[in-house]
Amino acid sequence: xxxxxxxxxxxxxxxxxxxxxxxxxxxxxxxxxxxxxxxxxxxxxxxxxxx
Amino acid sequence: xxxxxxxxxxxxxxxxxxxxxxxxxxxxxxxxxxxxxxxxxxxxxxxxxxxxxxxxxxxxxxxxxxxxxxxxxxxxxxxxxxxxxxxxxxxxxxxxxxxxxxxxxxxxxxxxxxxxxxxxxxxxxxxxxxxxxxx
Lengths: 51, 135
What we know:
The complex is a heterodimer of chains A (51) and B (135). Chain A has 51 residues and is an all-beta fold. In chain A, 0% of the residues lie in helices and 78% in strands. In chain A, strands 1, 2, 3 and 4 form a 4-stranded antiparallel beta sheet that branches. In chain A, strand 2 (7-15) and strand 3 (21-37) form a beta hairpin. Chain B is α+β, with helices and mostly antiparallel strands. A 4-stranded antiparallel beta sheet of chain B has the order 1-4-3-2.
């Protein structure tokens, strides 16, 4: 079941090859998927992907 | 593509560490609410994805108040393997292709309906070339 699939801004923080921190703002898509029963979700899977 | 998998046991561990006061069943509504806040109120709410070489990647959902940045929720993510990314891209591509087909079908229906019901409007549209006709 896909619950939600919005695009939202994410600040991406990485360290470059010289060890310097880099920060980039990008749009990411968040997908929330889950397996559920009448008692509630068993497992939630959250996927985050850039376009 | 980054993935976070959580069941109730995994969430209990996070809840204790991060002092969260909501149950596993509220995690999805809470995530939805936070992402919507990030979209609506860019200055107050933000999301930061930190990529780590040694440990897991981390997504922090944050609230910026006047004098402090508060961490609301942190989730650990792992990067998908190449094969998984390929199947993910294939899935996304198929979905986009299907959406395109549905839209093209709707457009073709609108065109045929307009041609049939309102020929003067159709002539106007064709003359102005405002509409790219599907093949």
